[in-house]
């Protein structure tokens, strides 16, 4: 025969077991929900800019007229290895094409221009994919110019 105290104890034990189980379930769901809500944060990172240094040289043509021509030299970067580089002077409406070395460096043929001109530069890698266009100012001090005017 069951005593009322024993019966009450069994009911409390069962209730406590169910309560603990429910609390564990709620806590587990809360942890899973928090982890799901705090997933990885995506921060957009712009592609790296193409780095190039310009060097000016004065050339005299057959008529004796002097022209200031510029060459560009690029820094080594693995993703630029053996890429084809395109440099376009926005103000002069002229450009040059150069092929990169195995380490990603490049040297262009002479490019006509005036100091301060905007130069658009991009490359096509060996897989045929194009890089983002970088705009540089034509100067020996290596500043970037943001977006080239069109």
How are helices and strands ordered from N to C?
HEEEEEEEEE
Architecture per CATH nomenclature, i.e. the level-2 architecture of the largest domain: Sandwich
The domain tally reads 2
Strand content: 25-35%
Structure notes:
The chain has 150 residues and is of the alpha+beta class. The N and C termini lie far apart (96 Å). Helices cover 23% and strands 32% of the residues. It has one helix at residues 4-37; strands spanning 52-60, 66-74, 84-89, 94-99, 106-107, 111-112, 118-124, 134-137, 144-146. It folds into 2 domains: 1-45; 52-146, Immunoglobulin-like (Sandwich).
Give the topology, please:
Elements: H1 4-37, E1 52-60, E2 66-74, E3 84-89, E4 94-99, E5 106-107, E6 111-112, E7 118-124, E8 134-137, E9 144-146
Antiparallel strand pairs: 1-2, 2-5, 2-6, 3-4, 3-7, 7-8, 8-9
Which descriptors apply to this entry?
150 residues; 1 helix; 2 domains; alpha+beta; single chain; four-stranded antiparallel beta sheet; Immunoglobulin-like
